Amino acid sequence: MNTGIINLAHGSGGREMLELIHSFDFTHRGQWENCDDDSASLDIENNNKLVFTTDSFVVDPIFFPGGNIGHLAVCGTINDLAVMGARPLGLSLGLVIEEGFSKQDLAVIIRSVIRISEETGIPVVTGDTKVMENGKIDKIIINTSGVGIAKSEELLTRDIVTGDKIILSGGIGEHAVALLSKKFDYETDIITDCKPLIHEISAVKDLIKLAKDPTRGGIAAVLNELCEKHCISFLLDEEAIPVKHQVRKITRMLGIEVYELACEGRFVCIASQEEAGLVESRLQEFNTDAAIIGEVVHDEGNRVILQTLLGKRILPVPSGRIVPRIC
Hints:
globular
C-alpha cells in the first residue's frame, strides 16, 4: 500500500509525478495502445486509428501576456493530438468555477476558446460546468479532452536509432517567463508561446519519426522520458538550443533551469540524419528559431547529455516543485 501524502511536486511534470503515475495499476487497457504517450490510440476500420487525450489546467494567473487559461486549455489538447500525428476532430470543455467568479472574465476566457476553435476548424462539441463554494478552488479549473483520427502509418510512434537528429520547433521558456512576469510583476516583452501546432506538425509529419510537446517539465522531462522509453541517449548542443536573451536573463535571475520550463506552442521531434535538414528548414518557415539541437548517441545510460562550452553534463529528469502553476 502506498503511504505518505500528495505534494505539489507530484503535479509538476518531473520525477515525482512519473513515480506517482507508475504506482497506479492501469493494466487493463483492452485494445487501446500508446496509453503512455500524449494520446492513446485505438484501431478502427479502414486502417484508421482513433486518438484520444485529456488534460486539466490550473494555471495561475489565469490571464497572462498573450493568452489566458481558456486559450491554453484548447491549444494544449489540440497539440497532444497533433504530436501523435492525428487530425483533431472535436473537443470537450469542462469548467469548474469558484462561486463569485467574474462573468466578464469568464466571457473573455470562452471567447478565446471559440476563437481557437474557429481558427483551427476544430469544434467544441460537448462539455460540463460545475460551481464550487467560494474558497474551495482557486478561481477556475478547465478540463479539455479531444479525439482525432490518423491512418496507422501516420501515427508518430516510429523506432529511433543512433544518428537520428533532434529538432526543436522554436525557442523555449517563453510561456513560463510570460506567466512568471505577471505573477512576480517584472517587465518583459516576452509573451506566451501558446498556439495550436497542427500546421507545423502537418508540414513535417511525413519526415519525422515521433514528436512531443514539452509542457510540464520542459524539454528536460520529455527528452528523458524518450530516453527511458526507447533505451537510447541524447547528446544536446547547448549552443544550438534556441533561448531568447530575455528568457535566459530572467531564468538566471530567478534561479530556474530553462530546460525544465513548460512550452505550450513548441515541440521536439526526431528525424533521420538524412531528413533532419529538411525538417529544420520547413519548421523555420513557421519560426526562424527552429533548430537541430542534438542527436541520438550510443550510451548505455539512457540519459540526456548536454554539451556545454565547459564540457558535458547530464540533464536530469526534473524533480521537486519546478515553478508555480504555469499549465
